[in-house]
Specification:
By secondary structure, the protein is α+β, with helices and mostly antiparallel strands. It has 16 helices and 15 strands. It is rod-shaped.
Length: about 600
């Protein structure tokens, strides 16, 4: 645990070894990892001004412990060893600028925020003048800067600046203290760049967090919800660590902000761990998943009391949390590696997205980042790497969802095609019995009640055609009839094959005499079709039975009536149209002959 956020990203870095999933994947993984490390090293090398001085205990800083807020005399300072028993009093640190070769510098003293109650800075000049500046917990005044730093500017005077003294009341641990002395121009440059990096990273994290939560809701993905919560924790951590939150909550400056950062960092460990395991849970053993989540939760639980302490026990909690975080990282690495070896796509996405944060974590453990990256140190490195990680993972999640959506659309199209094939007669392409009934119910269901008629057609003497000319010729006859009936298929007219040589047509909106005329035109048209060799030897005719009803009449009732009428047409000598109520009366026949209304035969194609 480190203060001002035990750099929040570090506990939340589920890193992974590439595994054996293909040379190209491993190569891409290593390239991205190395590229990120090179970029970070270059940035770190450029971030530290040449004229910056890092003030360290035992080197450029001497220390003394006192009970009041008045600086002790020079003889009370010790320049060796470590200070002790200062948590209940004031730890005074003094640097003689003559000793470090910076006398006369026009400096800015930058102190990274940590757990303390009161801070006093004394700038000493050669003429004996002492400039005193102070900040108190909950009141930094104009001294706070974005990037987690407190700035004290030495006044410009003709006399040389010879020393800087820093007094910190109720400091939790001197190990959390980071102090730099910079030229005013260099300090302003560092602070501006640190603010830009911090603000940009927090903005990216916020956008990605909201986006991941939206994807989680839309796609009902638990892992994305946990990742979104992790991003939210990182955003809040960044706001408190960078001190941007002081714009709205100035009273949390100091210990409260540092404690909040530690708590948020530890919560981020748990949410990141659960997010990773939720993504690859199906491909890792249950014991490994439970153990990894347990470690993440343990970090959060230990982080609660660790974030509350303000005395020397903070170092003990830091060591304990360090062990738990390393164990959690090892477990997450094992889980991702396990899933990678089973060729789980999500595991590869996780490994690649966490490649740079993993490198950042390694570098912060090997090298001292306390004053690098424009004074933001490991916190800025981890914040930037976390923004990179969540943006990368958001992109991969989007691509994965797009791929899933495309596959779903293809599956729906295939399902629709299969359903269409299941409802079609394989020989003629017309609707089969099931498809015809479904289409009839769909087309004419609901709405106002209107006339509906069913025409049942049967090819006369079809069996002799098969016997004399063969089944191929018989199939050709059926296909020819189907092609002619298909031309009638409109919004209010559908055709189908019921089986064998029996066809059916349903038509809506015709009066009785128009229906009779329509049926006669169908019979005559089918009787004049050219079926090649079959037609040269004999005529191919159809008998038609017609049943009238409404769009609310049950299909089975209409079909039974039309079937009886068809049977009557067969008994009457075939090649006839008979209504279920009998032949049209003479007056209706005469009206049909006089009526100007007629159907074009054959009908035009749609």
């Amino acid at each position: 645990m480190r203060d001002a956020g035990c750099p929040a990203g570090a506990p939340t870095l589920p890193c992974s070894a590439p595994g054996i999933a293909g040379y190209r994947d491993v190569t891409a993984f290593v390239r991205s990892w190395l590229a990120g490390l090179c970029a970070l090293l270059c940035l770190a090398g450029l971030a530290q001004p040449a004229d910056a001085i890092t003030l360290r205990l035992g080197q450029s800083l001497c220390h003394a412990v006192a009970t009041g807020r008045d600086a002790p005399p020079d003889r009370a300072y010790a320049c060796a060893g470590e200070p002790r028993n200062y948590q209940g009093g004031t730890l005074w640190l003094h640097s003689n600028l003559d000793a470090v070769g910076r006398a006369g510098l026009d400096p800015v003293l930058l102190v990274h925020q940590t757990r303390f109650r009161h801070m006093t800075v004394l700038f000493r000049y050669a003429d004996g003048f002492i400039d005193r500046q102070e900040v108190t917990q909950g009141d930094y005044g104009a001294h706070w800067r974005i990037g987690g730093q407190i700035a004290f500017e030495a006044p410009a005077r003709s006399a040389l600046l010879t020393g800087v003294t820093l007094g910190i009341d109720h400091l939790a641990s001197h190990k959390l203290l980071r102090v730099r002395l910079l030229d005013r121009v260099a300090a302003n440059r560092d602070l501006a760049i640190a603010a830009a990096l911090t603000g940009g990273s927090i903005t990216l994290l916020l956008i990605a967090g909201v986006y991941n939560l939206s994807l989680a809701i839309a796609g009902r993905r638990q892992s994305l919800a946990w990742h979104g919560l992790w991003a939210v924790c990182m955003v809040l951590w960044g706001l408190f660590w960078s001190q941007i939150a002081l714009i709205v909550l100035p009273q949390v400056a100091g210990t409260d902000a540092a404690q909040t950062c530690t708590l948020l960092a530890c919560l981020a460990v748990a949410t990141a761990t659960i997010s990773v395991i939720a993504t690859i849970a199906a491909t890792v053993p249950r014991w490994l998943a439970r153990a990894t989540i347990g470690l993440g939760i343990a970090v959060a639980l230990v982080g609660i009391p660790g974030s509350l302490v303000t005395d020397g026990s903070v170092d003990l909690f830091a060591d304990l949390l360090g062990v738990l975080v390393l164990a959690d990282l090892a477990a997450v690495t094992l889980a991702i590696g396990w899933s990678w070896r089973r060729s789980r796509g999500e595991a590869r996405d996780l490994a690649k997205s966490w490649a740079l944060p993993m490198g950042v974590l390694a570098l912060t453990q090997i090298f001292d980042f306390s004053d690098a990256l424009f004074g933001g140190g490991a916190q800025i490195a981890v914040l930037s790497a976390s923004a990179f990680q969540t943006i990368w993972l958001s992109i991969t999640a989007t691509l994965r969802f797009s791929s899933m959506r495309a596959e779903l659309d293809q599956a729906r199209a295939a399902k629709s095609a299969l359903a269409e094939l299941a409802n079609r007669d394989p020989l003629t392409g017309l609707l089969n019995r099931r498809g015809f009934v479904d289409c009839l119910e769909t087309t004419f269901a609901g709405g106002n009640e209107s006339p509906l008629a069913l025409l049942l057609l049967d090819v006369d003497l079809f069996k002799p055609i098969n016997d004399q000319f063969g089944h191929e010729a018989g199939d050709a006859v059926l296909c020819g009839i189907a092609d002619m009936l298909r031309r009638f298929e409109r919004e209010l007219c559908i055709a189908g094959r019921m089986g064998g040589e029996e066809f059916v047509v349903a038509i809506s909106g015709l009066t009785s005499f128009a229906l009779a005329q329509f049926a006669e035109r169908v019979r005559n048209g089918l009787g004049t079709l050219d079926h090649g060799e079959v037609t040269r030897h004999r005529a191919v005719t159809v008998s038609i039975g017609v049943a009238e009803g409404t769009t609310r009449t049950r299909f089975q009732r209409l079909y039974s009536a039309a079937d009886r009428a068809l049977y009557d047409a067969k008994r009457a000598g075939r090649n006839k149209v008979i209504f279920s109520s009998g032949l049209p009366d003479p007056q209706l026949r005469e009206q049909m002959e006089r009526d100007q209304f007629s159907f074009r035969w054959p009908p035009k194609r749609a």
